[in-house]
Amino acid sequence: MQTNPPLTVKPKHAGKKQLFDNPVLERLTRTHIAVPITIFVLFAIGLLVYAFRMAMLPVWLIGVLFFAGLLTFTLAEYLMHRYVFHMSTHTPTRAKLQYTMHGVHHEYPKDKERLAMPPIISITLAFVLLGLSYLLMNKYAFAFLPGFVLGYAGYLFVHYITHAYAPPKNRFKQLWINHSVHHYKDGKKAFGVSSPLWDYVFGTMP
Predict the structure, then answer these.
(1) Per residue of the chain (206 residues), what is the pLDDT tens digit?
(2) Is 4 inside a domain boundary?
(3) Is residue 9 part of a domain?
(4) What is the torsional sign of CA 145, 147, 148, 151?
(5) pTM attached to this predicted model
(6) How many domains does the chain have?
(7) What is the rounded distance in angstroms from the CA atom of residue 70 to the CA atom of residue 194?
(8) Residues 172, 173, 176, 182: what is their CA dihedral angle, to the nearest 10 degrees?
(9) Which sign, positive or negative, has the C-alpha torsion 87, 88, 89, 93?
(10) Residue 177 in contact with residue 158, Cβ under 8 Å?
(11) Where in the sequence is the domain holding 75, given as residue range(s)?
(12) Four-CA torsion 135, 118, 176, 148, nearest 10 degrees
């Protein structure tokens, strides 16, 4: 494992960071953004097809559960970003963990291969979510989880384009502004990437 940098990192506008000496482990920390997005979109479509054809859920209920899953993801995104990715780093172990999970992205925000979890983690997470949601919701999980999963795919897409492209001249420009504030001005603000909803609710909107 490479030496961990200071807890407060200054963003670099170019370059990449090697996290592991082992080339296989290092390769597993990188991915093209299209890979996890494709995985989750196809996974969500498969779940919706199952909800329609096998679970025999009514269309209106599928719509309600899908929207509930989408909304739930926006909350999960906010909470994960605020309390896990920006966890307190009061011990060396926590500091190393936080840097590996998210701090490296703050130091090298233009590294396009580290804007999403690697495919092996994405696939594992997808099936873990399916198992947990089925235990909690039974067949209704097949309508709820697609909304959650597509919410994550949307987050990946928004996160990628806010780092890779200039902001558009429309209402979506605010997403670029919010994320830039989070990276370059105040890391304790604007935790929502795909939606500012929960930043308004919890008072962390810049």
Answers:
(1) 443 444 456 777 667 777 777 777 777 778 889 999 999 999 999 999 999 998 889 999 999 999 999 999 999 999 999 999 988 888 888 888 888 778 788 888 887 787 787 778 888 888 899 999 999 999 999 999 999 999 999 999 999 999 888 988 888 899 999 999 999 888 899 999 999 999 999 999 98
(2) no
(3) no
(4) positive
(5) 0.87
(6) 1
(7) 11
(8) -100
(9) negative
(10) no
(11) 23-202
(12) -10
What's the rounded Cα separation, in Å, for the pair 44 and 64? 15
Written as six digits, the tokens of 37 are 């997005």
> Which residue type occupies 10?
K
Query: For residue 143, is it within any domain?
Result: yes
Long-range own/partner contacts, residues 161-166 (CB < 8 A, 24 or more apart): 162/193, 163/109, 163/110, 163/112, 163/115, 164/112
45 within a domain of the structure (yes/no): yes
